[in-house]
Protein backbone atom coordinates (compact mmCIF):
# COMPACT_ATOMS: atom_id res chain seq x y z
CA UNK A 1 0.00 0.00 0.00
CA UNK A 2 1.24 3.49 -0.75
CA UNK A 3 2.00 5.88 2.10
CA UNK A 4 -1.04 7.86 3.23
CA UNK A 5 -1.43 11.27 1.68
CA UNK A 6 -1.49 14.09 4.17
CA UNK A 7 -4.37 16.52 4.38
CA UNK A 8 -4.36 19.81 6.26
CA UNK A 9 -7.74 21.51 6.69
CA UNK A 10 -7.87 25.08 7.97
CA UNK A 11 -11.33 26.07 9.18
CA UNK A 12 -12.68 29.60 9.42
CA UNK A 13 -15.96 30.86 10.81
CA UNK A 14 -18.96 29.07 12.19
CA UNK A 15 -19.63 25.68 13.77
CA UNK A 16 -21.22 24.61 10.52
CA UNK A 17 -17.79 24.88 8.95
CA UNK A 18 -16.18 22.88 11.76
CA UNK A 19 -18.68 20.13 11.06
CA UNK A 20 -18.20 20.39 7.30
CA UNK A 21 -14.41 20.18 7.72
CA UNK A 22 -14.82 16.91 9.62
CA UNK A 23 -17.05 15.56 6.85
CA UNK A 24 -14.60 16.68 4.14
CA UNK A 25 -11.71 14.98 5.92
CA UNK A 26 -13.80 11.80 6.15
CA UNK A 27 -14.71 11.99 2.47
CA UNK A 28 -11.04 12.38 1.54
CA UNK A 29 -10.17 9.55 3.93
CA UNK A 30 -11.68 7.23 1.33
CA UNK A 31 -9.03 8.55 -1.09
CA UNK A 32 -6.21 7.67 1.32
CA UNK A 33 -5.81 11.04 3.00
CA UNK A 34 -5.04 11.33 6.72
CA UNK A 35 -5.29 14.62 8.54
CA UNK A 36 -2.15 16.38 9.76
CA UNK A 37 -1.75 19.38 12.05
CA UNK A 38 0.34 21.73 9.92
CA UNK A 39 0.31 23.06 6.37
CA UNK A 40 4.07 22.42 6.04
CA UNK A 41 3.74 18.61 6.07
CA UNK A 42 0.63 18.42 3.88
CA UNK A 43 0.14 16.99 0.38
CA UNK A 44 -3.17 18.79 0.18
CA UNK A 45 -4.32 21.95 1.92
CA UNK A 46 -8.00 22.83 2.11
CA UNK A 47 -9.13 26.24 3.33
CA UNK A 48 -12.70 25.94 4.56
CA UNK A 49 -13.71 29.58 4.35
CA UNK A 50 -16.36 31.84 5.86
CA UNK A 51 -17.90 34.82 4.13
CA UNK A 52 -19.60 36.52 7.04
CA UNK A 53 -16.89 38.99 7.97
CA UNK A 54 -15.75 42.04 6.07
CA UNK A 55 -13.07 41.48 3.44
CA UNK A 56 -13.47 37.70 3.82
CA UNK A 57 -12.45 37.03 0.23
CA UNK A 58 -9.41 39.33 0.53
CA UNK A 59 -8.28 37.43 3.61
CA UNK A 60 -8.49 34.16 1.70
CA UNK A 61 -6.37 35.60 -1.11
CA UNK A 62 -3.71 36.78 1.31
CA UNK A 63 -3.74 33.39 3.08
CA UNK A 64 -3.25 31.76 -0.32
CA UNK A 65 -0.42 34.18 -1.03
CA UNK A 66 1.31 33.04 2.17
CA UNK A 67 1.22 29.46 0.86
CA UNK A 68 3.37 30.27 -2.12
CA UNK A 69 6.64 29.18 -0.48
CA UNK A 70 5.06 25.83 0.43
CA UNK A 71 4.07 25.23 -3.15
CA UNK A 72 7.53 26.27 -4.36
CA UNK A 73 9.10 23.80 -1.94
CA UNK A 74 6.67 21.05 -2.99
CA UNK A 75 5.32 21.43 -6.54
CA UNK A 76 3.03 18.41 -5.95
CA UNK A 77 1.21 20.19 -3.15
CA UNK A 78 -2.50 20.56 -3.96
CA UNK A 79 -4.43 23.57 -2.70
CA UNK A 80 -8.19 23.77 -2.41
CA UNK A 81 -10.71 26.38 -1.29
CA UNK A 82 -14.03 25.26 0.21
CA UNK A 83 -16.87 26.94 2.07
CA UNK A 84 -18.78 30.14 1.53
CA UNK A 85 -16.02 32.20 -0.11
CA UNK A 86 -15.61 29.35 -2.62
CA UNK A 87 -19.35 29.50 -3.25
CA UNK A 88 -19.39 33.26 -3.62
CA UNK A 89 -16.23 33.70 -5.72
CA UNK A 90 -16.28 30.49 -7.79
CA UNK A 91 -13.94 30.51 -10.75
CA UNK A 92 -12.62 33.96 -9.83
CA UNK A 93 -10.45 32.26 -7.17
CA UNK A 94 -8.56 30.19 -9.74
CA UNK A 95 -8.25 33.19 -12.02
CA UNK A 96 -6.78 35.42 -9.31
CA UNK A 97 -4.72 32.69 -7.69
CA UNK A 98 -3.59 30.12 -10.27
CA UNK A 99 -1.99 28.06 -7.49
CA UNK A 100 -5.47 26.89 -6.47
CA UNK A 101 -6.29 23.42 -7.83
CA UNK A 102 -9.72 22.87 -6.38
CA UNK A 103 -12.75 25.02 -5.52
CA UNK A 104 -15.72 23.38 -3.83
CA UNK A 105 -18.89 24.98 -2.46
CA UNK A 106 -20.70 23.82 0.70
CA UNK A 107 -23.33 21.91 -1.29
CA UNK A 108 -21.01 19.54 -3.12
CA UNK A 109 -18.59 18.06 -0.57
CA UNK A 110 -19.65 14.53 -1.45
CA UNK A 111 -17.97 15.05 -4.83
CA UNK A 112 -14.62 15.76 -3.16
CA UNK A 113 -13.14 12.25 -3.66
CA UNK A 114 -13.63 12.47 -7.43
CA UNK A 115 -12.35 16.04 -7.41
CA UNK A 116 -9.25 14.99 -5.44
CA UNK A 117 -8.51 12.29 -8.02
CA UNK A 118 -8.81 14.88 -10.78
CA UNK A 119 -6.38 17.29 -9.15
CA UNK A 120 -3.92 14.49 -8.38
CA UNK A 121 -3.98 13.85 -12.14
CA UNK A 122 -2.94 17.45 -12.70
CA UNK A 123 -6.38 18.82 -13.56
CA UNK A 124 -8.24 21.70 -11.98
CA UNK A 125 -11.56 20.91 -10.27
CA UNK A 126 -14.38 23.34 -9.59
CA UNK A 127 -17.85 22.56 -8.25
CA UNK A 128 -20.08 25.16 -6.66
CA UNK A 129 -23.48 23.80 -7.76
CA UNK A 130 -26.58 23.76 -5.62
CA UNK A 131 -27.67 20.18 -6.36
CA UNK A 132 -31.07 18.82 -5.39
CA UNK A 133 -29.59 15.68 -3.85
CA UNK A 134 -28.66 15.51 -0.19
CA UNK A 135 -24.90 16.01 0.05
CA UNK A 136 -24.75 14.08 3.31
CA UNK A 137 -26.20 10.95 1.75
CA UNK A 138 -23.08 10.44 -0.32
CA UNK A 139 -20.49 10.82 2.39
CA UNK A 140 -18.86 7.66 3.68
CA UNK A 141 -20.82 5.88 6.39
CA UNK A 142 -17.62 4.83 8.15
CA UNK A 143 -17.76 6.96 11.27
CA UNK A 144 -16.95 4.07 13.55
CA UNK A 145 -13.82 4.98 15.54
CA UNK A 146 -14.31 6.33 19.07
CA UNK A 147 -14.50 10.07 19.30
CA UNK A 148 -14.87 12.85 21.84
CA UNK A 149 -18.01 13.20 23.94
CA UNK A 150 -19.47 16.16 22.02
CA UNK A 151 -20.46 16.40 18.37
CA UNK A 152 -22.22 18.66 15.91
CA UNK A 153 -25.01 17.42 13.70
CA UNK A 154 -26.15 19.61 10.83
CA UNK A 155 -29.92 19.35 10.55
CA UNK A 156 -30.64 22.15 8.12
CA UNK A 157 -28.73 24.55 5.95
CA UNK A 158 -29.39 27.82 4.24
CA UNK A 159 -31.81 30.55 5.13
CA UNK A 160 -34.90 32.18 3.63
CA UNK A 161 -35.00 35.13 6.00
CA UNK A 162 -32.98 37.64 3.98
CA UNK A 163 -31.95 39.94 6.81
CA UNK A 164 -30.81 43.05 4.95
CA UNK A 165 -27.18 42.81 6.18
CA UNK A 166 -26.60 39.10 5.72
CA UNK A 167 -24.97 37.13 2.95
CA UNK A 168 -26.03 33.65 4.08
CA UNK A 169 -29.20 33.38 1.92
CA UNK A 170 -26.99 34.08 -1.10
CA UNK A 171 -23.99 31.90 -0.25
CA UNK A 172 -25.73 28.98 1.49
CA UNK A 173 -28.90 29.20 -0.54
CA UNK A 174 -32.51 28.46 0.38
CA UNK A 175 -33.41 26.65 3.57
CA UNK A 176 -33.10 22.84 3.26
CA UNK A 177 -33.89 20.43 6.12
CA UNK A 178 -32.46 16.92 6.32
CA UNK A 179 -34.87 13.99 6.74
CA UNK A 180 -35.53 13.18 10.41
CA UNK A 181 -34.90 9.44 10.29
CA UNK A 182 -31.48 9.92 8.80
CA UNK A 183 -30.63 12.36 11.60
CA UNK A 184 -31.82 9.91 14.26
CA UNK A 185 -29.66 7.21 12.71
CA UNK A 186 -26.64 9.50 12.53
CA UNK A 187 -27.16 10.57 16.14
CA UNK A 188 -27.40 6.90 17.19
CA UNK A 189 -24.10 6.18 15.46
CA UNK A 190 -22.45 9.11 17.19
CA UNK A 191 -23.67 7.85 20.57
CA UNK A 192 -22.27 4.38 19.80
CA UNK A 193 -18.94 6.10 19.28
CA UNK A 194 -18.98 7.71 22.71
CA UNK A 195 -20.82 10.97 22.05
CA UNK A 196 -22.93 12.18 24.99
CA UNK A 197 -23.84 15.65 23.77
CA UNK A 198 -25.07 16.68 20.33
CA UNK A 199 -25.44 20.25 19.10
CA UNK A 200 -27.91 20.50 16.26
CA UNK A 201 -26.64 22.97 13.71
CA UNK A 202 -28.25 25.11 11.10
CA UNK A 203 -28.01 28.69 9.91
CA UNK A 204 -31.65 28.96 10.90
CA UNK A 205 -31.97 25.78 12.92
CA UNK A 206 -35.36 26.39 14.49
CA UNK A 207 -36.87 26.70 11.01
CA UNK A 208 -36.14 22.95 10.74
CA UNK A 209 -39.00 21.15 8.99
CA UNK A 210 -37.59 17.80 7.92
CA UNK A 211 -39.46 14.91 6.46
CA UNK A 212 -40.43 12.44 9.21
CA UNK A 213 -42.01 8.98 9.03
CA UNK A 214 -45.44 10.45 9.84
CA UNK A 215 -45.28 13.80 8.07
CA UNK A 216 -43.15 16.87 8.57
CA UNK A 217 -41.24 17.28 11.84
CA UNK A 218 -40.36 20.59 13.44
CA UNK A 219 -37.26 21.06 15.58
CA UNK A 220 -39.13 20.33 18.84
CA UNK A 221 -40.31 16.96 17.55
CA UNK A 222 -36.79 16.13 16.36
CA UNK A 223 -35.36 17.05 19.77
CA UNK A 224 -37.98 14.97 21.61
CA UNK A 225 -37.20 11.92 19.46
CA UNK A 226 -33.44 12.39 19.84
CA UNK A 227 -34.01 12.55 23.59
CA UNK A 228 -35.23 8.92 23.52
CA UNK A 229 -31.75 7.72 22.45
CA UNK A 230 -30.14 5.96 25.41
CA UNK A 231 -26.68 7.30 26.14
CA UNK A 232 -27.38 10.68 24.56
CA UNK A 233 -27.61 12.97 27.56
CA UNK A 234 -27.44 16.50 26.24
CA UNK A 235 -28.98 18.27 23.29
CA UNK A 236 -28.32 21.84 22.16
CA UNK A 237 -29.15 23.73 18.98
CA UNK A 238 -27.86 26.84 17.23
CA UNK A 239 -28.58 29.35 15.59
CA UNK A 240 -32.19 30.43 15.84
CA UNK A 241 -34.42 33.23 14.59
CA UNK A 242 -36.98 34.66 17.06
CA UNK A 243 -39.84 34.25 14.58
CA UNK A 244 -39.31 30.49 14.41
CA UNK A 245 -39.51 29.86 18.20
CA UNK A 246 -42.69 27.81 18.04
CA UNK A 247 -44.78 26.88 21.09
CA UNK A 248 -43.63 23.28 21.22
CA UNK A 249 -39.98 24.32 21.08
CA UNK A 250 -40.55 26.73 23.97
CA UNK A 251 -42.34 23.96 25.89
CA UNK A 252 -39.44 21.57 25.24
CA UNK A 253 -37.15 23.94 27.16
CA UNK A 254 -39.33 23.24 30.18
CA UNK A 255 -40.14 19.56 29.87
CA UNK A 256 -37.33 17.93 27.89
CA UNK A 257 -34.62 17.24 30.46
CA UNK A 258 -31.94 16.54 27.88
CA UNK A 259 -32.41 19.92 26.22
CA UNK A 260 -29.80 22.12 27.89
CA UNK A 261 -30.75 25.44 29.53
CA UNK A 262 -28.81 27.56 27.06
CA UNK A 263 -30.32 29.39 24.10
CA UNK A 264 -28.63 31.46 21.41
CA UNK A 265 -31.35 33.76 20.11
CA UNK A 266 -29.97 36.75 18.19
CA UNK A 267 -31.95 39.98 18.15
CA UNK A 268 -29.38 42.20 16.33
CA UNK A 269 -30.93 45.51 17.48
CA UNK A 270 -33.32 46.88 20.08
CA UNK A 271 -34.73 49.63 17.85
CA UNK A 272 -37.96 48.89 15.97
CA UNK A 273 -36.93 51.27 13.21
CA UNK A 274 -33.65 49.44 12.68
CA UNK A 275 -35.23 45.99 13.07
CA UNK A 276 -37.60 46.97 10.27
CA UNK A 277 -34.74 48.23 8.09
CA UNK A 278 -32.92 44.95 8.83
CA UNK A 279 -35.99 43.01 7.62
CA UNK A 280 -36.10 41.09 10.90
CA UNK A 281 -39.93 41.07 10.88
CA UNK A 282 -40.35 41.43 14.65
CA UNK A 283 -40.28 44.29 17.13
CA UNK A 284 -38.15 44.68 20.25
CA UNK A 285 -41.26 44.24 22.46
CA UNK A 286 -42.16 40.99 20.67
CA UNK A 287 -38.64 39.68 21.29
CA UNK A 288 -38.78 40.62 24.97
CA UNK A 289 -42.20 38.95 25.32
CA UNK A 290 -40.82 35.84 23.63
CA UNK A 291 -37.90 35.69 26.07
CA UNK A 292 -40.36 35.99 28.95
CA UNK A 293 -42.30 32.99 27.64
CA UNK A 294 -39.15 30.89 27.24
CA UNK A 295 -37.99 31.87 30.73
CA UNK A 296 -41.39 30.95 32.12
CA UNK A 297 -40.77 27.45 30.72
CA UNK A 298 -37.14 27.35 31.91
CA UNK A 299 -36.36 30.01 34.52
CA UNK A 300 -32.63 29.24 34.75
CA UNK A 301 -32.09 29.55 30.98
CA UNK A 302 -28.80 31.21 30.02
CA UNK A 303 -29.46 33.44 27.07
CA UNK A 304 -26.99 34.30 24.35
CA UNK A 305 -27.39 36.78 21.49
CA UNK A 306 -25.89 38.50 18.47
CA UNK A 307 -25.90 42.28 17.99
CA UNK A 308 -24.96 44.60 15.17
CA UNK A 309 -24.15 48.24 15.86
CA UNK A 310 -23.82 50.95 13.23
CA UNK A 311 -26.36 49.49 10.82
CA UNK A 312 -27.04 52.14 8.10
CA UNK A 313 -29.31 54.85 9.51
CA UNK A 314 -28.74 53.90 13.18
CA UNK A 315 -29.07 57.02 15.36
CA UNK A 316 -27.90 57.47 18.94
CA UNK A 317 -31.52 56.95 19.98
CA UNK A 318 -31.71 53.64 18.07
CA UNK A 319 -28.49 52.53 19.73
CA UNK A 320 -29.82 53.47 23.17
CA UNK A 321 -32.84 51.26 22.43
CA UNK A 322 -30.43 48.36 21.91
CA UNK A 323 -28.73 49.14 25.24
CA UNK A 324 -32.17 49.24 26.91
CA UNK A 325 -33.14 45.91 25.44
CA UNK A 326 -29.90 44.35 26.69
CA UNK A 327 -30.57 45.77 30.18
CA UNK A 328 -34.12 44.40 30.11
CA UNK A 329 -33.28 40.93 28.81
CA UNK A 330 -29.91 40.21 30.46
CA UNK A 331 -27.49 38.02 28.49
CA UNK A 332 -25.16 35.38 29.88
CA UNK A 333 -23.20 35.28 26.63
CA UNK A 334 -23.17 37.53 23.57
CA UNK A 335 -21.50 38.31 20.28
CA UNK A 336 -21.53 41.89 19.04
CA UNK A 337 -20.33 43.21 15.72
CA UNK A 338 -19.77 46.51 14.01
CA UNK A 339 -21.85 46.52 10.86
CA UNK A 340 -19.86 45.87 7.71
CA UNK A 341 -21.36 46.09 4.24
CA UNK A 342 -21.59 42.78 2.37
CA UNK A 343 -21.68 43.35 -1.38
CA UNK A 344 -24.93 42.16 -2.92
CA UNK A 345 -27.03 42.63 0.23
CA UNK A 346 -29.72 45.37 0.34
CA UNK A 347 -28.11 47.19 3.28
CA UNK A 348 -24.86 47.59 1.33
CA UNK A 349 -26.63 50.14 -0.89
CA UNK A 350 -27.25 52.50 2.03
CA UNK A 351 -25.02 55.20 3.48
CA UNK A 352 -22.95 53.83 6.36
CA UNK A 353 -22.80 55.24 9.89
CA UNK A 354 -19.55 57.10 10.52
CA UNK A 355 -16.94 54.52 11.46
CA UNK A 356 -15.75 56.24 14.66
CA UNK A 357 -19.35 56.55 15.87
CA UNK A 358 -19.96 52.84 15.29
CA UNK A 359 -16.68 51.98 17.07
CA UNK A 360 -17.75 53.99 20.08
CA UNK A 361 -21.16 52.29 20.20
CA UNK A 362 -19.59 48.86 19.88
CA UNK A 363 -17.33 49.63 22.81
CA UNK A 364 -20.25 50.76 24.99
CA UNK A 365 -22.38 47.75 24.07
CA UNK A 366 -19.51 45.34 24.68
CA UNK A 367 -18.82 46.88 28.07
CA UNK A 368 -22.44 46.27 29.09
CA UNK A 369 -22.52 42.73 27.66
CA UNK A 370 -19.21 41.83 29.33
CA UNK A 371 -20.57 43.05 32.64
CA UNK A 372 -23.67 40.86 32.24
CA UNK A 373 -21.60 37.88 31.14
CA UNK A 374 -19.36 38.33 34.16
CA UNK A 375 -22.35 38.54 36.51
CA UNK A 376 -23.91 35.40 35.00
CA UNK A 377 -20.66 33.46 35.40
CA UNK A 378 -20.04 34.73 38.95
CA UNK A 379 -23.60 33.82 39.97
CA UNK A 380 -22.71 30.16 39.39
CA UNK A 381 -20.47 30.10 42.46
CA UNK A 382 -22.06 27.94 45.15
CA UNK A 383 -24.36 26.21 42.69
CA UNK A 384 -24.39 22.56 41.68
CA UNK A 385 -24.15 21.86 37.95
CA UNK A 386 -23.52 18.89 35.67
CA UNK A 387 -20.22 18.86 33.84
CA UNK A 388 -19.40 16.78 30.77
CA UNK A 389 -15.63 16.28 30.84
CA UNK A 390 -14.04 16.85 27.44
CA UNK A 391 -10.28 17.09 27.98
CA UNK A 392 -7.41 17.17 30.45
CA UNK A 393 -6.75 20.48 32.19
CA UNK A 394 -3.40 22.22 32.44
CA UNK A 395 -2.90 21.15 36.05
CA UNK A 396 -2.03 17.61 37.12
CA UNK A 397 -5.16 15.53 37.78
CA UNK A 398 -7.48 18.17 36.36
CA UNK A 399 -10.26 17.68 33.81
CA UNK A 400 -12.11 20.38 31.90
CA UNK A 401 -15.66 20.21 30.69
CA UNK A 402 -18.79 22.23 30.04
CA UNK A 403 -21.64 22.83 32.44
CA UNK A 404 -25.28 22.61 31.36
CA UNK A 405 -25.01 26.40 30.83
CA UNK A 406 -21.98 25.99 28.54
CA UNK A 407 -19.52 27.50 31.00
CA UNK A 408 -16.06 25.89 30.95
CA UNK A 409 -15.41 24.23 34.34
CA UNK A 410 -12.05 23.02 35.71
CA UNK A 411 -12.27 20.18 38.24
CA UNK A 412 -9.78 17.89 40.01
CA UNK A 413 -11.20 14.57 38.85
CA UNK A 414 -10.04 11.00 38.12
CA UNK A 415 -9.20 10.25 34.50
CA UNK A 416 -11.95 7.64 34.15
CA UNK A 417 -14.47 10.50 34.26
CA UNK A 418 -13.23 11.74 30.88
CA UNK A 419 -16.18 11.67 28.48
CA UNK A 420 -18.57 11.28 31.44
CA UNK A 421 -20.99 13.62 33.18
CA UNK A 422 -20.54 14.36 36.88
CA UNK A 423 -22.25 16.58 39.45
CA UNK A 424 -19.98 19.43 40.41
CA UNK A 425 -20.18 22.24 42.93
CA UNK A 426 -18.86 25.55 41.60
CA UNK A 427 -16.37 27.09 44.03
CA UNK A 428 -14.69 29.87 42.08
CA UNK A 429 -15.26 32.11 39.05
CA UNK A 430 -12.07 32.87 37.09
CA UNK A 431 -11.42 35.18 34.13
CA UNK A 432 -12.80 32.80 31.47
CA UNK A 433 -13.89 29.70 33.32
CA UNK A 434 -15.24 28.29 36.55
CA UNK A 435 -13.58 26.06 39.09
CA UNK A 436 -15.58 23.24 40.66
CA UNK A 437 -15.35 20.28 43.00
CA UNK A 438 -16.80 16.84 42.45
CA UNK A 439 -19.83 16.10 44.60
CA UNK A 440 -19.61 12.66 46.15
CA UNK A 441 -22.58 10.65 44.89
N1 LIG B 1 -22.07 43.02 9.52
C1 LIG B 1 -21.87 42.78 10.84
N2 LIG B 1 -22.29 41.66 11.45
C2 LIG B 1 -22.92 40.74 10.70
N3 LIG B 1 -23.46 39.54 11.02
C3 LIG B 1 -23.96 38.99 9.90
N4 LIG B 1 -23.78 39.80 8.85
C4 LIG B 1 -23.15 40.91 9.32
C5 LIG B 1 -22.70 42.13 8.73
N5 LIG B 1 -22.90 42.38 7.43
C6 LIG B 1 -23.50 39.02 12.39
C7 LIG B 1 -24.96 38.88 12.87
C8 LIG B 1 -25.17 37.39 12.83
C9 LIG B 1 -23.78 36.88 13.15
C10 LIG B 1 -23.52 35.45 12.79
O1 LIG B 1 -22.92 37.72 12.42
O2 LIG B 1 -25.06 39.37 14.18
O3 LIG B 1 -26.16 36.94 13.76
FE1 LIG C 1 -28.55 35.73 7.96
FE2 LIG C 1 -29.48 34.63 10.23
FE3 LIG C 1 -30.85 36.60 8.98
FE4 LIG C 1 -30.70 34.15 7.88
S1 LIG C 1 -31.70 34.70 9.85
S2 LIG C 1 -30.46 36.11 6.81
S3 LIG C 1 -28.61 33.54 8.45
S4 LIG C 1 -28.81 36.75 9.96
Overview of the structural elements:
The chain is of the alpha/beta class and 441 residues long. The chain has 3 domains: 5-135, Rossmann fold, CATH 3.40.50; 144-378, tm_1862 like domain (pyruvate-formate lyase- activating enzyme, Alpha-Beta Horseshoe); 384-438, OB fold (Dihydrolipoamide Acetyltransferase, E2P), CATH 2.40.50. The protein is built from 14 helices and 21 strands. The strands form 6 sheets. It has a 6-stranded parallel beta sheet. Strands 17-18-19-21-20 form a 5-stranded mixed barrel. Helix 13 packs parallel to helix 14 (355-378). The chain is globular. The structure holds 5'-deoxyadenosine (5AD) and iron/sulfur cluster. Iron/sulfur cluster (SF4) binds next to helix 7.
Task: Give short descriptive properties of this protein.
441 residues; alpha/beta; Rossmann fold; pyruvate-formate lyase- activating enzyme; OB fold (Dihydrolipoamide Acetyltransferase, E2P); 3 domains; 6-stranded parallel sheet; 5-stranded mixed β-barrel; 21 strands; binds 5'-deoxyadenosine; binds iron/sulfur cluster
Q: Report the strand count.
A: 21
The backbone outline, from C-alpha atoms, is: globular
In the CATH hierarchy, the architecture of the largest domain is Alpha-Beta Horseshoe
CATH homologous superfamily of the largest domain?
tm_1862 like domain
CATH hierarchy class name of the largest domain: Alpha Beta
**CATH fold description of the largest domain:** pyruvate-formate lyase- activating enzyme
Question: Can you tell me the residue ranges where pLDDT is under 50 for at least 5 consecutive residues?
Answer: none
Question: Count the helices. How many?
Answer: 14
Q: Strand-residue fraction?
A: 15-25%
Q: Can you give the helix content as a percent range?
A: 25-40%
Biggest sheet layout = 6 strands, parallel
- Count of separate structural domains: 3
CA-atom Rg in angstroms: 23 Å
Strands of the widest sheet, in order across it, are 2-1-3-4-5-6
First and last CA, distance: 51 Å
Which hetero ligands occur in this complex?
5'-deoxyadenosine, iron/sulfur cluster
Structural class, please? alpha/beta
If you average the pLDDT, what whole number results? 92
Amino acid sequence: MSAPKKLFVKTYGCQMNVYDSERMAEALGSEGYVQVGTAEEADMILLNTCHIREKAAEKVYSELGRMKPLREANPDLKIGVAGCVAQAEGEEIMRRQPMVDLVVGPQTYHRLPAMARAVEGGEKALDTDFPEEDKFLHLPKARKPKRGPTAFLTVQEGCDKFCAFCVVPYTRGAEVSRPAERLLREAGELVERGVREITLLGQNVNAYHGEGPDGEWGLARLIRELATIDGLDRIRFTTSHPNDMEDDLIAAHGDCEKLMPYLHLPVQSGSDRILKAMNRKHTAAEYVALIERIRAARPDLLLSGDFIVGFPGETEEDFEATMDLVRTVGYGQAYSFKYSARPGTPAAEKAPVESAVADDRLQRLQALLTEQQRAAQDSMVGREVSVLFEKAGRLEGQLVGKSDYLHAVHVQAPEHLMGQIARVKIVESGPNSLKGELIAE
